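Q: What changes when PRP is included in the input?
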Amino acid sequence: MSTVCVFDHPLIQHKLSILRDENTSVKEFRELVSEIAQLMCYEATRDLPLEEVDVQTPVAMAKCRRIAGKKLAVVPILRAGLGMVDGMVAMMPNVKVGHVGLYREPVKYYFKMPPDITERDVIIVDPMLATGGSAIAAAGFLKEEGVKNIKLMCMIAAPEGVEAMQAAHPDVDIFAAALDDHLNDHGYIVPGLGDAGDRIFGTK
Ligand code: PRP
Ligand code: URA
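A: The predicted holo structure follows.
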């Protein structure tokens, strides 16, 4: 069974509290989504394999460690996942980015991956894991392409979404900044933050 890692770091929790606030502006909301993604990326990549390298400093040779093994790709689920890409790229400037567009049925309307996606480990990013329908579908499409190692990074998860995701993809570890209470009758996370896409793009 996959692991669920809920980040209790004070910086993440502080930023999340402002993100949830209905009075937070679009500008601030965007900035916070990006900043939280950046902080979460730091933890979600903790298990990346390292290899030893020798580096000549101005003083002496130093035994150092650099990231080895498979390369990464970040795959945002459109639209709201786009808000997390900047933060991920700030931490990993050369990371490749694929895109999955899904309506909440979920219906796929866009799918464009780096050509070498099967050689990469993938971190799916989406601020909200509600019923889990979108993340389950996105992970399924990536597996159909041949991707072997997938993680899911979301800001707020509902217990229903976590359970559904773990049942559908027991190999996909989930990273979240908060595990909320439940879903309401409209499939919104309670207390959540409302519609993440609308708040990032100012469409409501
Ligand atoms: C939101 C969110 C997730 C999805 C989560 O996207 O960004 O992708 O809902 O819900 P689920 O777990 O029940 O699938 P939405 O479908 O509203 O599209 P948008 O990002 O274009 O606003
Ligand atoms: N999608 C959102 O943007 N918010 C929710 O609460 C649930 C799904």
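Observations recorded in class: The longest strand covers residues 71-78.
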